[in-house]
Amino acid sequence: MIISHFPKCVAVFALLALSVGALDTFIAAVYEHVVILPNRTETPVSKEEALLLMNKNIDVLEKAVKLAAKQGAHIIVTPEDGIYGWIFTRESIYPYLEDIPDPGVNWIPCRDPWRFGNTLVQQRLSCLAKDNSIYVVANIGDKKPCNARDSQCPPDGRYQYNTDVVFDSQGKLVARYHKYNLFAPEIQFDFPKDSELVTFDTPFGKFGIFTCFDIFSHDPAVVVVDEFQVDSILYPTAWYNTLPLLSAVPFHSAWAKAMGVNLLAANTHNTSMHMTGSGIYAPEAVKVYHYDMETESGQLLLSELKSRPRREPTYPAAVDWHAYASSVKPFSSEQSDFPGMIYFDEFTFTKLKRNTGNYTACQKDLCCHLTYKMSEKRTDEVYALGAFDGLHTVEGQYYLQICTLLKCQTTDLETCGEPVGSAFTKFEDFSLSGTFGTRYVFPQIILSGSQLAPERHYEISRDGRLRSRSGAPLPVLVMALYGRVFEKDPPRLGQGSGKFQ
């Protein structure tokens, strides 16, 4: 485990400076970027050609940075793979990589561009931050030489890392994070030997940073929040939406709510790969989000956030996700269970047969309880309550406990768990709970058209119920309590057996 921190003497000075200029709120910005992709090739292009493509993407990001700064933003997050894309082999990405030093070197690339060799991308990002007086967060590739004395050194003599960088408003490199949990198709990058817990202080709170698939992990995602007590997470991602349970906006907003931090999530935009969904999320509410499968255009989002949300009276209370569900007996409603698949996991489902009722679905140690009332029971739409308690094994390995209410794709029960875009059945009342064996449960409600349910229409009770509170009829597509049981995970999420490995 690697912890990024300042030397003690510098840290003391920094804390004194921060206490003087501390801000209660700040303006956050994220940019969903339509990445200009290189041509697919296994033969590396020249360094000049690689730089030309990267500059084309930075030209677009520059406009977003300048616009955000003009609107008062203190910090902007851009997406994972946002500068060069993702169509690479290990060899073909090499011309796009730069040597990214440890932030402890006290370096402003805009003022000293050749200190660490050819670092033209870092120089440009640094100047963008400095010239616009804004923190800039970007995702680029790092290269580090190694030799035979290192038993893990790759045959080509170098490590290649998926890397986030942060430049402060003076253009100084203040954070560098190597993605720890690589997604299965990321064959162009190496796994870091150790997890890096990267945090840094600003006048508007303490920040942590990690990337995309890391959000499923205990290390670094949970550790940097629980043990390092950060206020906000910077989150570059290249997330392709996998309905019904793994759509970017619902999952990321649920994570922010459950973990009690601000989350600044910037996704790439590529509708052919179902990539969209960026947002700015606070513990108590979704501030702003963008989801667009209709157009091919980027989107800048801005919102004001509390700098230190834990100190606020609106900060959510702790939830005991086991309390209510373990206190009630399983409901029996003449139900018959049936299996169904969601993202390669076999759920135990039961069909909702009437417009009102109480149902229980169980699998292993998890029992999911649902009480509900529909405005009417339509004959052309079918809903099911599902439970899953097991190890997910495709594109990584991680242990899940999930309770979900969802609309089936058709009236055929074999389609329960398949993606659905619209719903006409409206739920006037609902309560969903489960006998979870973890405190890390992420609650989400997705409405017709893949829209988030506004917070005024539901609440999370302290005894672990996701329940309605407004009485307004809601056209529910998916309702879920998505639990992660970290102690049952393998050592690293991305190194399990998987479809691409």
From TrEMBL:
Residues 31-307 form the CN hydrolase domain. InterPro entries: Biotinidase-like_euk, Biotinidase/VNN, C-N_Hydrolase, C-N_Hydrolase_sf, Vanin_C. The active site is at E80, K179, C212. SUPFAM superfamilies: Carbon-nitrogen hydrolase. Keywords: Glycoprotein, Hydrolase, Signal. GO terms for molecular function: pantetheine hydrolase activity. GO terms for cellular component: extracellular space. Residues 1-22 form the signal peptide. GO terms for biological process: pantothenate metabolic process. It comes from the Eukaryota. Belongs to the carbon-nitrogen hydrolase superfamily. BTD/VNN family. This is CN hydrolase domain-containing protein. It comes from Pan paniscus.
